[in-house]
Amino acid sequence: MGAALQVTAFGLALLSTLFLLLATCTDCWMVNADDSLEVSHKCRGLWRECVTNMQDGVRTCDQYDSILADHPVKIVVTRTLMITADLLAGLALATLILGLDCITFLKEDPCVKLKMCYGAGVILGAASILGLTGSMWYAVDVYVERAMLVSHNIFLGVHYDFGWSCWLGMAGSTGCFVASVLLTCCLY
Questions:
Q1: Could you give the CA distance from residue 72 to residue 59 in angstroms, rounded to a whole number?
Q2: Domain ranges, ordered by start, for the chain
Q3: Closest Cα partner for 28 from 6, 61, 58, 2?
């Protein structure tokens, strides 16, 4: 039962880490949410803003200025939290691989392998908290920005909603949390 739980947690941790990495690298954290007939689809991400022409499918992207340039707080905080979550999830995945019962590393000392799995669970828990905080921070800021414009009857022509990258970050963080619970609470 323990080996099956470890492999399940590993599979979930691997998938969740991939989701976190994709969310950090992709550029669709905010999408235009207008109900009118648009000729272009706009996405804003952590690293650039892209516009796709719906008629011919041509996509153009504008890179943000240097990482050291002044950016909105939501971008800086989300970048920091997501990159840290990615690094922690990768470290937890490497630790978990070495701690699996099916791996011959430290086969003669099962207590150390169990501690490695537990440590990987704790690290995954930290990664999930950071990733979820970053994704939720960005999502709440998008919502507040939109609500402020609506409450002041300001229409800029484009309203943004949560993009698939934001949802992918939330899903990856939730998966890391579930894998963390499996490794820290259910493994013993």
A1: 24
A2: 3-30+72-187
A3: 61
Q: What are the structure tokens assigned to 185, written together?
A: 């609470």
Query: Mean per-residue pLDDT for 97-115?
Result: 81
Residue 165 pLDDT more than 60? Answer: yes
- Residue 102 three-state SS: coil
**Residues with Cβ within 8 Å of residue 71, at least 6 apart in sequence:** 64, 65
Between CA 135 and CA 130 the distance in angstroms is 9
- CATH class of segment(s) 3-30+72-187: mainly alpha
Do 183 and 118 touch, CB atoms closer than 8 A?
yes
Whether 41 and 54 have beta carbons less than 8 Å apart is answered as yes
pLDDT of 1 above 60: no
Encode pLDDT of 11-31 as tens digits. 999 999 999 999 999 988 888
The model scores a pTM over 0.70: yes
Choose between 152 and 76: higher pLDDT.
76
Judge contact between 61 and 50, C-beta under 8 A: yes
Q: Which residues contact 5 (CB under 8 A, 6 or more apart)?
A: 182, 186, 187
Query: What tokens appear for 142 in the block?
Result: 């998008």
